[in-house]
Design brief:
Elements: E1 9-14, H1 24-33, E2 37-41, H2 50-55, H3 58-67, E3 70-71, H4 84-89, E4 95-97, E5 109-113, E6 116-124, H5 126-130, E7 140-142, H6 145-156, E8 162-168, H7 171-180, E9 186-189, E10 200-202, E11 205-208, E12 219-224, E13 233-241, E14 244-252
Length: 283
């Protein structure tokens, strides 16, 4: 998946909902960024515009397979994630067979990013799972995300330096996940339905989300930088363009802690500095 390029950062999109009409520049940005980025999506890439109603997901499928390395399933377009090619790229730790408990998807991928083995794994919130039409999830169920994440950490802690979660649960739920799973370094929040734009730190975990309201032709871009004197800093930006949400996670050199938003540096405790971050050759 990433054997032909050196990955130094992670780019995450959320809640695309088939909004491809005004996305040419955004797709171009993703294509350019792919040379040194692990591209991931946090769910709900399908359904929401005429592109989906007319093409039945064909265009969205081509974009995911052509650009993305790891994807997490959302409640919208759930059935598409079982298509063979997309299923190979999908990660979800807590969706299982209702009778056997066997995971429905691969539970995580470990990729080397900036020289550090990092696990990317997904979860779907219980409410999000319950909103999937019953006809699309026969014999399937979702287990408690916290339980699934803790089991996964215990099974792979010897392989991984950093943990990135692609969550399709909602921002408030993700704050709870951060408290219950302090080993997580970064949570990319999806299905948020919240005006909060983050980032929010819970202990050593950073919870990210993009803006949810934006003009049809516009977008939002923010950059946060910060560091701990003994740890690599993390540079993060989120952008939402015509329904697309983008979160960037990149290592930068240590600097004095600061929070930058459009050139404005507020006073106070605006530090954003995950203690660890990165991923390894896909397993």
């Amino acid at each position: 998946m990433t054997a032909d390029r050196s990955v130094r950062q992670v780019l995450a999109t959320t809640d695309v909902h088939s909004a491809l009409g005004a996305g040419a520049s955004f797709l171009g940005h993703l294509h350019e960024a792919r040379s040194d980025s692990l591209l991931v999506d946090c769910g709900d890439f399908f359904e929401g515009t005429g592109y989906y109603r007319l093409g039945k997901g064909a265009l969205e499928r081509d974009v995911l397979l052509g650009l993305y390395d790891v994807i997490a399933p959302g409640n919208h377009g759930w059935a598409h994630y079982f298509e063979p090619a997309l299923h190979q790229r999908t990660v979800c730790a807590n969706a299982v067979d209702g009778s056997t408990g066997t995971p429905l998807f691969r539970r995580l991928r470990i990729v080397e990013v900036a020289g550090r083995p990092t696990a990317s794994r997904g979860v779907i919130g219980l409410q999000a799972f319950d909103s999937i039409p019953v006809t699309q999830r026969p014999g399937q169920r979702a287990v408690e995300p916290v339980k699934a994440l803790r089991e996964l950490m215990l099974a792979h802690h010897h392989e991984v330096d950093s943990w990135v979660l692609l969550s399709h649960s909602g921002f408030e739920e993700d704050l709870g996940l951060a408290e219950a799973c302090p080993f997580l370094d970064v949570i990319s929040a999806d299905r948020c339905h919240s005006d909060h734009t983050g980032p929010t730190r819970i202990g050593s975990t950073l919870v990210l989300k993009g803006r949810e309201r934006v003009g049809a032709q516009g977008g939002d871009s923010r950059v946060w930088t910060g560091s701990r004197r003994s740890d690599p800093a993390v540079c993060l930006s989120s952008r939402r363009i015509a329904g697309w949400s983008l979160a960037r996670i990149a290592r930068v050199l240590p600097d004095p802690p600061e929070l930058i938003d459009g050139g404005f540096t507020p006073s106070g405790n605006g530090t954003v500095s995950p203690s660890r971050f990165s991923p390894r050759t896909v397993t």
